[in-house]
Amino acid sequence: MNKKLLLINPVQDARLSLGIVAPIRVPPIGLGYVAALTPSDWEIRIVDENVEHLSFEDADLVGITAYTSNAPRAYEIAEQYRRRGIRTVLGGVHASLLPDEAIQFVDSVVIGEAESVWPQVVRDSESNGLKHFYQGQLISLEECVKHRWDLYKLQDYHTKVHVETARGCPMDCEFCSVTTLYGRSYRQRPVEDVLSELEATDYRNLLFMDDNILGHGEIAEKRAIRLFRGMLERRLNKRWACQVGIDFATNSDVLKLAKKAGCLVAFIGFESLNDECLKSMNKVRNLKVGASNYKDVVRRIRDHGILVAGAFVLGGDGDMKDVFDRTTQFILDSKMDGAQISILTPLPGTRLYNRLKQEGRLLLTRYPSDWKHYGFTEAVFKPKHMTPDELEEGATRVYRDTCSMVKSFKRALNSAVQSRSSYGGVIMFSYNRGFRTFWLRNCWHIKDTRSSRIDDWQPDASLTSRESCDEEAISV
To answer: What CATH class is the domain 3-135?
Structure first.
């Protein structure tokens, strides 16, 4: 009888699952690679709590992945299995940065990229010799294993296929844990391998998962151009979204080629309208362009029929109380198709976390349980020029003012016209309303799960009314 491996992607909280934001509801790609490296005589099942209920079925080995805000849930799952005598292994960015914390709740911790050590983990489990820690190494992407798409319930995902063409980032943003864990390396898959993967899937809509599809530097950009041309030459007829740097707008030839190859949406980290904040974040490329030129960036990309979804991080030391109104105005005036608003969050292992800890500005430090608040929707530190409540309320106001039903519909119509695609309008309407619903659900979640942030902290009633937030949520 085959042994059984259960691979689990935990949810932070069922009410706060980003799975409600349909356009970004995608399968957990890392588990598919781990499954592909597991011997064929193992029965494997992937459970993603963002889209299905975890029934705690029996298994011989349980592998769990986690980022920071869902780490407490990952620990709960692991402990339940350990009580049954079932071995548990935890990986992912949080466990990799805090392995001594993670090992208190699991049998084994994989640090770094699991691909280089997973076959050994399985062998050790079979021989009852599982080690406490396995140190993964950065792997070459020249010969990636074939991803196990067959193990996902793809009908539960909006974007059913997402493809990785490169890993890593040579940038060094203060708030990012990627470079803390993996250094500033940048590794690329061969273009022909990526094209063959795209050709093998029947699904038209896909998401490129790279931090930046254009990569970093002239060589990487030329590689991206070869990828786009290859998609055209093979007549793949895909419709795709990607993450890309702000300098995507500087090369009109690249924009034209990307559009012809099927690019529908570009997700760009604008991060802040404040150059002082950009400087403290170490957003070198954004500073080079300058926040004053952001509208021109949006216009250039949209002029080529590619929609723009921007990411903004609020609460930096340079942000005053007017940042919320200025961000709202920019989103609307620039005709940006979608926007994701986040509260600056000091993830463990980052320079931001270490700085705020040294300055005594961290508010929620009852770890590991307080990690669930580190999900980019709560103020877990003391901002410089406003209260934590004002930061949360201001971010909520941006969503309410930019993503109301009427404004979302008007923006979606504009997106459909600009992209010459009714599908583009539908996607951006769903994106904006989904993020608004997600954010407003967080309003009453804070009230339910966080009794105090500091001794005299009292939640703002206008933020945490369950009735008002639920009324907003059902309107999506």
So the answer is: alpha beta
